[in-house]
UniProtKB/TrEMBL annotation:
It comes from the Bacteria. Belongs to the DHPS family. Its EC number is 2.5.1.15. Its cofactor is Mg(2+). It comes from Desulfurispira natronophila. This is Dihydropteroate synthase.
Length: 288
């Protein structure tokens, strides 16, 4: 496989937060779920043309890349074969890449990831950190692509039964560092690694809040950071909002806190609102 094309990569600039002041705005990954059952927007973008149009709109709204997935990972979701994932995501990825859009693929399948990278995607977003498919880390490393390694326990159908931790921050960080080092040992470049604590994946409310509060610590280990918390259940638990699509305010609040802590990439549904909030917050913080 050819090395992933450098022109499509996320710029490697690192965000910095000095004394609570945001000096670099995080990059934004806009979400395109080509699935019938995702927790927030399942079924909205299963039509290929609609999904492609949504991807373009996300870029117009300010997304730096578009994260395309063909399998829901919400609690209780059923697994989807690699063949079906490719049927869903490949036409979308090909069309977006052809128009110059930077694309990542959200999958735990090395087969899906390989085909997506060959089609022009430059990043793999793997919620299993390469554990579900033993060939993932080696394949992505050899392709010269970027990878997001996320922490979770169990499978979507049962992960909320695995929420007990003695030290959630220490355990999650140790796991992610172990997976990152394995990727580097396979030949992957350290600068191509993003670490995601897996908000909502085998985590209860307190664990989610603590992990978000420790993102600056996670970014201090020599790898970049990635956070996907948009519209998630913990926001509803805090705010009382049961409808995931109505959790914009809480999602933006998380994005601002993540930015303050130097997170490199934010994965969000509401790109325009998140981008605007980050721009205004940056101006306010820099002029304190």
């Amino acid at each position: 496989m050819e090395k992933a094309k450098s022109r499509m990569r996320i710029h490697p600039a690192i965000n910095h937060s000095v004394a609570g002041v945001l000096t670099t705005i995080p990059r934004i990954a806009g979400i395109v779920n080509v699935t019938p059952d995702s927790f927030s927007d399942g079924g909205r973008f299963v039509d290929c043309d609609i999904a492609i149009a949504h991807g373009h709109q996300l870029v117009l709204d300010g997304a730096d890349l578009v994260d395309v997935g063909g399998e829901s990972t919400r609690p209780g979701a059923q697994r989807v074969s690699a063949e079906e994932q490719l049927n869903r995501v490949l036409p979308v990825i090909e069309a977006l890449v052809a128009d110059g859009v930077a694309v990542s693929v959200d999958t735990t399948s090395a087969q899906v990831a390989r085909v997506a990278l060959e089609a022009g995607a430059t990043m793999v977003n793997d919620v299993s950190a390469g554990e579900e498919d033993s060939g993932m880390l080696d394949m992505v490393a050899k392709a010269g692509a970027q990878i997001c390694l996320m922490h979770k326990r169990g499978q979507p159908r049962d992960m909320q039964r695995h929420t007990c931790y003695e030290d959630v921050v220490g355990e999650v960080h140790a796991y992610l560092l172990q997976r990152a080092r394995q990727f580097v040992a396979a030949g992957g470049a350290p600068e191509n690694v993003y670490l995601d604590p897996g908000i909502g994946f085998a985590k209860e409310l307190e664990a989610n809040v603590r992990l978000i509060g420790s993102m600056s610590q996670l970014g201090g280990y020599g790898f970049k950071t990635y956070l996907g918390a948009s519209r998630k259940t913990f926001i509803g638990q805090i705010s009382g909002e049961k409808d995931a699509s109505q959790r914009l305010g809480g999602s933006v609040a998380v994005a601002l806190e993540a930015a303050r802590q130097g997170v490199n990439v934010l994965r969000v549904h509401d790109v325009a609102q998140t981008r605007q909030a980050l721009q205004v917050a940056s101006a306010l913080w820099l002029n304190r």
